[in-house]
Amino acid sequence: MTIFVAYLATDGGRDAVALGVQVARSMRTDLAVGMIVPPDAAAPITPGDFVDQVLTAQADEWLGAAVAAVPADVAVSTHVRVSDSPAEGIIAEAERLGADAVVIGGTGGGLLGSHSLGSVANDLIHSSSVGLLVAPRGYADLALPTIRRITCAVGTRAGADELLDVAIASAARAEVPLRLISLVALDLVPRHRRADPVAQDQARDHAERVLDEARARLSGSVPVSVSVAVGPTVEDAVEQVGWESGDIIMVGSSRLAAPRRLFLGSTAAKMLRRLDVPMVVVPKEGI
Question: Measuring CA to CA, which residue among 20, 118, 128, 119 is closest to residue 75?
């Protein structure tokens, strides 16, 4: 198992490395840190190609600084790939390395709550063939050693079983509690102006069934709990369940996603706007 950090020499890059270290240590796996450079930055050096030489050397320097912050107990390697498309280069490098997930920093253009996504991050979150972990702004400053708890947003749409599979396997590997959450948000059904008792009962019944399945599959190896939150919006509902440092949330791809691809659905996007914990987006058909 390998975690691949798509690195930039920015605050978002520092956040991504910090999350990558946390996940790699928790999952007891290797960490790879890579940068994507444009083709002209990797061209053979000839007299007059001084700019290319400087860019290539700068990438090596940035990667050196990045891995210098990785603790000695986490095995780390560095990689540079040439691609005229940063997002395509990141996906290709992750696939070459056999990475199970790509970590990115959220800081960039386009405000999205604590996760301020830039254009490359947006491309990845809608097209990656491997799982994507998004680090909130300022995550490196928390210096969290390991994952504390995994939260999985359970639902009834296609892909829910695959998401649960990944969440159960991850909680077992990291030996951390698994929390299942089911959200009842009135903004998903505009005609409702108050809490719908039937919808709440259905959410609770479904969550309890998923809880029983998770407990049976984990056989008591880690604690499993469930929470059903009701709110006027997805953002309000997801805040009600409570979040602490060291939590991460797992969500599935939209039903619109192609097989083995990500596509962030509207509900997950609303969560991302409000939460300040890392989000893991699982591809359709799992990681």
Answer: 20
* Backbone φ, ψ for residue 76 (5° rounding): -135, 145
Query: Percent of the chain, pLDDT > 90?
Result: 43
Structure tokens at 108: 């960039």
Interval 206-241: pLDDT, tens: 788 888 999 999 999 999 999 888 877 778 888 888
Residue entry with tokens 């560095």? 78
- Residues with Cβ within 8 Å of 187's Cβ and at least 6 positions away in sequence, in order, are 232, 233, 234
Distance CA 3, CA 122 (A): 19
Q: Give residue 98's region: left, alpha or beta (phi > 0; psi -120 to 50).
A: left
- Within 8 A by CB and 6+ apart from 205, the residues are none
CA distances from 126 to 16, 83, 84, 256, 258 (A): 18, 19, 19, 10, 10
> Are the beta carbons of 284 and 162 closer than 8 angstroms?
yes
Give how far the C-alpha of residue 226 lies from the chain's centroid of Cα atoms, to the nearest Å. 21
Measured distance CA(79)–CA(17) in Å, rounded: 14
Edge to edge, what strands does the sheet with 30-37 contain? 76-82, 30-37, 2-6, 101-105, 131-135, 279-282, 247-252, 149-153, 178-185, 224-231
Tokens of 111: 């405000």
Amino acid at 94: A
What span, in angstroms and rounded, lies between the C-alpha atoms of 279 and 211?
21
The pTM score is 0.84
Q: Give dist(CA 7, CA 32) in Å, integer.
A: 10
DSSP state of 258: P
Q: Are 37 and 55 in contact (CB under 8 A)?
A: yes
How many CB atoms neighbour CB 78 within 10 A?
Answer: 17
